[in-house]
Design a protein that fits this description.
By secondary structure, the protein is of the alpha/beta class. It is built from six helices and nine strands; from the N terminus they run E-E-H-E-H-E-H-E-H-E-H-E-E-E-H. A seven-stranded mixed sheet has the order 5-4-3-6-7-9-8, with helices on both faces. It has a two-stranded antiparallel sheet with strand order 1-2. Strand 3, helix 2 and strand 4 form a beta-alpha-beta unit. The longest helix has 14 residues.
Length: 194
């Protein structure tokens, strides 16, 4: 039986997207998504978004629904990718593309800068630090890009790039989530962060 997530706002408000159960898949709850997109409301329109560990696709589809001009969803699970593609077709969401690939391999490939990155890896696998370092080091982030992180509550955030600033942070149940911003390379160099 398929699971469903409702899009909160925008072009596809109240539409359902479906996803299959997969190991480590935890769709971001509606309340957390609503908070996140309230934080991002001035940043979504015409943005380029990278949705890593896309899973259900809820974050990327929500961004596209609210006016992101491009969304790339990266997911390794074949069944999850199939559902992502079905949802994209059902919504006629031509601005969303799916990359069926391991996130580490994807981030080690040819980079293009994104304005927003959603990073919500499966819990318990210690994937967050490596992905953050690759995002920063390989050129995936535009100046002043915003990065959303979701992880286990109480997980120490080590290995975050020094030029990332925490803008907002909250917890909900067993989940910690936060919004960070990359400073420009000029700012970071001038302030001894790089």
């Amino acid at each position: 039986m398929s699971n469903q997530v409702r899009i909160i706002a925008g072009e596809w408000r109240s539409r359902q997207i479906v996803f299959e159960d997969a190991p480590g898949l935890r769709p971001t709850p509606s309340r957390v998504r609503e908070t996140l997109f309230n934080w991002l409301q001035a940043d979504i329109l015409n943005s380029r978004c990278l949705d890593l560990y896309a899973g259900s696709g809820a974050l990327g589809v929500e961004a596209a629904s609210r006016g992101a001009k491009q969304v790339v969803q990266v997911e390794i699970n074949p069944a999850s990718c199939q559902k992502l593609r079905e949802n994209i077709a059902k919504l006629a969401a031509t601005q969303i593309k799916v990359a069926q690939q391991d996130v580490g391999q994807f981030l080690n490939g040819p980079a293009q800068p994104f304005d927003l990155v959603f990073l919500d890896p499966p819990f318990g696998l210690d994937l967050l630090g490596q992905a953050c370092q690759l995002l920063d080091a390989k050129g995936w982030l535009a100046d002043y890009a915003k990065i959303y992180l979701e992880c286990e509550r109480g997980l120490p955030l080590i290995n975050l790039p020094t030029d990332w600033q925490v803008l907002k942070a909250k917890t909900a149940g067993e989940v910690s989530y936060m919004l960070l911003q990359k400073q420009s390379d000029t700012f970071a160099t001038a302030n001894g962060l790089k």
